[in-house]
Design goal:
This protein has 532 residues and is of the alpha/beta class. The chain has 19 helices and 16 strands. Strands 1-6-7-14 form a four-stranded parallel sheet, sandwiched between helices. Strands 2-3 form a two-stranded antiparallel ribbon. The chain has a two-stranded antiparallel sheet with strand order 4-5.
Length: 532
């Protein structure tokens, strides 16, 4: 009987429980009925007047998805070209699979240190600054079907390389997916893909290589004639396919984080150290005054070259190859018995040196050498020319890029006029960069932004609000490689969020030019930089 009672109590408890569960389920069902979940529908769009069944992208490192100093799988996946390719596959748009020459490397390759292969850079907050991973991989040949490729972007490629069969011999990142290395060209491979629509973004490297190298070798700037010939040849052949295309202007290179992360006055000193250095540089300053006294240089030139330190931030001491070499004039002081032979020897490092000014741009790699050595570089002895883009070299870079942009506009206008219709749409990225970098109207003029017309310059100035950063869905994204920035840790190439912003600029242009209805990419849904 006792066991039976226990059994009955168990059944009773179970019955109460089942009754409670039934009541909860009924309550949940009622709540669902009163508050239905929103219906989630797949995005859709239309292709307007452009056919997107075969989208082909042509460009250099940005188009390839190179970021953080390397070409690696996740970076490629977030190239603006690949992001566009995915948007074109939205229902109703008509795009098909977008194939890239996948590198199949999680860390990529950024160089070698001893026997260690270095991979992509990450932001090390303890420095703070970028540093390479120690698990890089050498690039290997693309193992996929080259005939099915859509992305023909090659890191390091200049516009004059697009139709060069020799590019594969000098650039392994093209050789790895070239259809016939040594014979094929990037242009011939892209044409063989039979594009119905293309994006074309070349020309950055035709001035950027010079600037990244600290302005040492002016021959690295492509001549305007060679630039124009390559552009006319490649765009004419692309237009001849009947495909419509987007051609993009060149951004203001010298505002990139690579040229802004290290400040011109990046030397912090306390009062005692500054005093010691001023004592040490008294001889140089006296010699400069001596040259001025003998009318061998002007007093203004002497003042420009003098070195004086103070407590707080101080200008970097730099070599400037555009300065007159004072070696022979220092020798003249010895001849005049104004200085001794030993004093002359001490002046040798300063024949073409001066403190930096706000117009000089130390490059990112300067951070690796500043303050190093027994006689600290940039403080006691001048930092080498290759680490600073001097004011004169900045002007050369700005002038070259502005000339290239005017050439791009002229060639696009010419091809459209010959076709009797707009077969190429020119997208000017400069207004977006002006907004991002917080430029004002004066900076727009100084950097020669716009495409050479009053209307294009006005369009840039309309976006130049002087406020650093860009607002995206209520968030302010910075023009740097900070955790909230839009650039990758190499200071030149965008991170995935930056690529999404570029893709959305193109989508906006396509709506205006072709009447497409393709939704924007959610910028904030993508990652920023890689942090360690």
């Amino acid at each position: 009987m006792k066991n039976l009672k226990l059994y009955l109590f168990a059944l009773l408890a179970s019955g109460v429980l089942m009754t409670s569960c039934d009541e909860e389920e009924n309550l949940v069902d009622q709540r669902k009925s009163d508050n239905p979940l929103p219906t989630v529908t797949a995005p859709s769009g239309t292709n307007g007047s452009v056919t997107l069944t075969k989208y082909v992208s042509i460009g250099n490192s940005i188009t390839a998805g190179y970021m953080d100093g390397a070409l690696y799988t996740n970076g490629q996946a977030h190239s603006f070209a690949n992001l566009l390719g995915k948007q074109f596959q939205i229902s109703g748009v008509g795009g098909t699979t977008f194939n890239q020459p996948d590198i199949n490397s999680a860390f990529g390759y950024s160089g070698v240190s001893g026997t260690t292969i270095l991979g992509r850079y990450v932001l090390d907050l303890s420095i703070p600054g970028p540093k390479p991973t120690l698990t890089g991989e050498l690039p290997t040949a693309y193992a996929g079907n080259k005939a099915n490729l859509n992305n023909f972007a090659v890191p390091g490629m200049r516009i004059v390389d697009i139709n060069s069969p020799g590019l594969a011999a000098s650039n392994p990142l093209y050789a790895r997916f070239a259809s016939s290395p040594g014979t094929s060209t990037v242009l011939s491979d892209a044409l063989a893909a039979s594009p119905t629509f293309y994006t074309y973004w070349l020309g950055n490297n035709d001035a950027l290589g010079y600037a990244v190298g600290g302005g040492v070798d002016a021959t690295m700037i492509t001549s305007q004639g060679d630039f124009q010939n390559a552009l006319v040849s490649s765009l004419s052949q692309l237009a001849g396919t009947g495909a419509k295309g987007i051609v993009m202007s060149l951004p203001p290179l010298v505002v990139l984080p690579y040229f802004r992360a290290v400040k011109w006055n990046a030397i912090p000193l306390d009062a005692a150290t500054a005093g010691q250095l001023n004592t040490a540089f008294a001889g140089l300053n006296a010699a400069l005054d001596g040259l001025a006294a003998y009318s061998l240089i002007s007093t203004a030139e002497a003042a420009k070259r003098k070195v004086t330190y103070q407590a707080g931030p101080n200008a970097i001491l730099m070599h400037d190859k555009d300065l007159e070499d004072l070696g022979p004039k220092f020798d003249a002081l010895v001849g005049a018995s104004a200085i001794t032979t030993a004093q002359r020897a001490g002046l040798e490092p300063y024949r073409q040196s001066r403190p930096a000014t706000p117009s000089d741009l130390p490059i990112l790699t300067a951070a690796t050498v500043l303050g190093t050595g027994a006689a600290p570089i940039g403080l006691a002895i001048p930092i080498a020319d290759k680490y600073v883009l001097s004011a004169n070299e900045v002007v050369k870079t700005v002038t070259a890029r502005a000339t290239f942009n005017q050439t791009i506009k002229g060639v696009v206008d010419m091809i459209n006029a010959q076709a009797g219709a707009t077969v190429i749409t020119l997208v000017d990225v400069q207004p977006k960069f002006a907004d991002l970098f917080g430029l004002n109207a004066a900076a727009v003029d100084q950097l020669a932004l716009g495409l050479g017309t009053a209307a294009s310059i006005a369009a840039v100035k309309a976006e130049a609000d002087g406020v650093l950063g860009i607002r995206v869905n209520g968030a302010n994204l910075a023009p740097d490689f900070s955790p909230n920035g839009v650039f990758s840790t190499d200071g030149i190439h965008p991170n995935p969020r930056g690529h999404a912003i570029i893709a959305n600029v193109i989508l906006k242009a396509m709506r205006n030019a072709y009447g497409v209805e393709i939704p924007d990419i959610d910028v904030l849904a993508l990652r920023g930089i890689l942090v360690q």
